[in-house]
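Section 3.1: Structural characterization of target chains.
Under the original work plan, the team committed to producing a structural model for every single-chain target entering the pipeline before any wet-lab resources were allocated. The record below documents one such target. The sequence was received from the expression subgroup and is listed exactly as submitted; it comprises 154 residues.
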Amino acid sequence: MPQTELNAAIRKMIQVEVDAMHYYRQATEAMQDEGAIFHFNLLAEEEREHARSFYQIYPGKDLPAFDEILETPSADSPAAQAIDTGLMARLDERQALQLAMKLEKEVEGSLRRMANEIKSPEARAVIEKNAESTLGHYEMIAADYERLYADDEG
């Protein structure tokens, strides 16, 4: 992967993780289950750390300070669209969990594709670690969903 593509891919992953962090923080407002709220708060912090790990391996010098990046989700990402105030007001707990599972699967797939294209072993290791963590996020959310709604699916 050429350097400019690598830079663009890492910038994109930083923003994806930041957007997911914002989604999890706002989605808790639609939830009543303390376990799901706890997990979404935990996931928000993990997404922040994922963004930081990508920020740390970014080879360019053109990014703003990390704290500045954390302040605002991008307007065009699936996670950012999910935190639209009107949409968030209409989400119930089930929908918030379903959307979170979908987002985690999409991010995991993006990370795995990116890892396959990266030549740098250090960058690949960070990306693969984040892909595994993202799969763990999906599994945690799926377990909450199963615990809360298994009887409804029958």
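Residues 17 and 47 are 5 Å apart (CA to CA).
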